[in-house]
Write a structure and sequence with these properties.
Elements: E1 31-34, H1 49-58, E2 63-68, H2 74-77, E3 89-94, H3 98-108, E4 115-120, E5 138-142, E6 152-153, H4 154-167, E7 170-175, E8 179-182, E9 185-188, H5 194-201, H6 211-215
Parallel strand pairs: 1-2, 2-3, 3-4, 4-5, 5-7, 6-8
Antiparallel strand pairs: 8-9
Amino acid sequence: MDTDNIVKTDNFYAPVAKKKSGDYKIKPGQTVYLCFSTDFLIEEADAWRPECWQMIRERSDLHFLFLTKRIDRFMDCVPEDWNDGYDNVSVGCTVENQDRADYRLSIFNELPIRHKNIICQPLIEEIDITSYLDNIDLVVVGGESDRNARPLDYAWVLSIREQCIARKVHFEFRQCGTHFIRDGKSYVLATRDLCSQARKANINWQPAFSNNERSMT
């Protein structure tokens, strides 16, 4: 896949596609993942994004999720009626090291978004995100998957997990890195095993109440 070639896919209008009966093909309650091979806020998609927002408004019975490393463009890309956010949209801000975490998450914290996720993937160094965990629904951690991938140290994963537990934020370890370090030993893992090995670690953690539920009590 050429990720430098930004185009509408054949599934661009899938959220509003209908059957002959007039019912939507995508049933209510589903999650729709936007632009997972690129970035929803990328400049090349500016001309199409209003159509996306229109579909998101129309399908208020679906939940839409997108990730971005261009969080500094967010307010320039949302519709006029965004206000404090759409309840059916989750935004994941991606960070890979401390420098990008400090820059992007300081912006992310101040944005009017109802459902916020932090995506530490690919994580390439130990980071401290403790001060950015207010009103965060979920933190996801994962490594890089490629022959030339930068290593992921399991100690970095556990550090973020402890930060989330201390702040009562849902934590998920989604993917090991191709080059994985544990207890000082280096391993090379097959791409097909990265997610299953992360699951086997069995370190995902979820509080009894989400941030949003706590804020309502």
